[in-house]
Amino acid sequence: MAGHTYYHYQGHIRGAFMGITENREDATASAIGRYSTDLFAAKTKELICRHQAENPDTPFFLYLAVNTIHGSGRCDDTLKEKSPLHVPGRPYPEKGVSWPLDEEPLEARNTYINPIYAQYEPNVARYSTAITRLDDAIGDIVKCLEEQKIDRNTIIIFTSDNGPADEYGADPAKLGSNGPFDGLKRDVFEGGMRVPAFAYWPEKIEAGLIDHEPSQFHDWMATISDITGARKPELCDGVSLLPRWTDDKSHSPSLIYTSYEFPWGGTSETFKRFEARKAPVRGLQRLARIGDFTALQTAMRSEGSKIRLYNVREDPFQENDLAGKEEYKAVYDELKKRLEALAE
User: Fold this and answer.
1) Burial class for 270, CB neighbours closer than 10 Å (0-12, 13-18, 19+)
2) Whole-angstrom Cα distance, residue 102 to residue 196?
3) What's the CA gap between 131 and 28, in Å, rounded?
4) Above 50 in pLDDT, residue 15?
């Protein structure tokens, strides 16, 4: 639940702690009145610098899970401005943030709009400001690595967890947030599943390389294990992506599979045409992909639920369901078999 606010505070919502912990100790006092993107960036820089001062010859792993651009809107009295889609209370410092991070004035919190978005309607301006704030924070962290002279031999992986949402005032239709794809967060269509991802490692990965093959989150475990020389966990279904980035033709394809249930039903509210054409109710969903083809099923507990088939390279918007067409029977049967096997 703490992901639903960018200004953490002492308190609970429906039993969920809304503060911040550090090493399992309550550290909320260091977070009150600080915009979370800035707070996490400042702490990340402090951890990097401390590690280099104390253990400069030892590698480190740092997992930074910012809540930008998750829906926000839960507030207490630390915010006088209650608008959802939380924004910071000041511009990002030209010289970057530092730890401990200064508290924002109460009146300023959740009010700053980046000037380049001032002409847009309020919710679009807020959403865009928050995204740009994340860009600023990532750039600040990269600069920290450069100052520590470890940037060229540090791999930076950036990705997201799901497609755009239409919650807390966000409107993907106005921002073009899912590009050429259809569907939103909680959908197994491409708009809900496709997310940005990049890996930056100047000493190992060629600049400008584009990897067109699909991958999934479990591949990061296998990739990091490969990079560090550790053994991949036995229950990890992922494959290392490193061979794909170093032109090793012997790499294994990723296993693309998702099974997900949204128990409250629901539709992609902003995209009414999507609702009518594809997924009136989400419910229990599943997806598998082989090559360019994706098979998916929604509302699996409902009578009449069927498996659909799309060529997502030729038809990224998924307008043409190929299930039932004789020329695609072989790939349909293969994907159906995979769906059933992975569900066991």
Assistant:
1) middle
2) 31
3) 24
4) yes
- The pLDDT assigned to 1 comes to 47
Alpha carbon distance 306, 323 (integer Å): 9
DSSP 311: E
The structural domains of the chain, ordered by start, are 2-249 (3.40.720.10)
pLDDT band at 177 (very low <50, low <70, confident <90, very high): confident
Q: What are the strands, taking DSSP E only, across the chain?
A: 12-13, 16-17, 21-22, 25-26, 156-159, 197-200, 256-262, 283-290, 293-297, 308-311
Give me the phi and psi of 173, to 5 degrees please.
Answer: -65, -30
CA distance linking residue 139 with residue 141, whole number of Å? 5
3-class DSSP string for 17-39: ECCCEECCEECHHHCCCCCHHHH
Tokens of 64: 């930074």
Which one has a higher pLDDT value, 4 or 317?
317
Torsion of CA 292, 298, 302, 305, to 10 degrees: -20
- Phi then psi for residue 197, to 5 deg, are -155, 135
Q: What angle do CA 224, 219, 157 make, to 5 degrees?
A: 55
Query: Which residue type sits at 216?
Result: Q
Q: Tokens for 228?
A: 């560090």
Take residue 118 and report the two structure tokens written for it.
């001032």
Angle at the Cα of 48 from the Cα atoms of 207 and 112, rounded to 5 degrees: 80
Helix (H, G, I), strand (E, B) or coil at 96: coil
For residue 317, the Cα-to-chain-centroid distance in whole angstroms is: 20
Q: Could you tell me if residue 307 is left (phi over 0), alpha (psi between -120 and 50 degrees) or otherwise beta?
A: beta
pTM of the model as a whole: 0.91
Output the CA–CA distances (angstroms, integers) from residue 200 to 40, 64, 181, 234, in the order listed: 20, 15, 25, 27
- Which 3 state secondary structure label does DSSP give 291? coil
CA distance 28 to 33: 10
Length of the chain: 344
102 DSSP assignment: P
Burial of 162 (0-12, 13-18, 19+ CB in 10 A): middle
Structure tokens at 319: 């307008």
Measure the CA–CA gap between 329 and 307, rounded to whole angstroms: 12
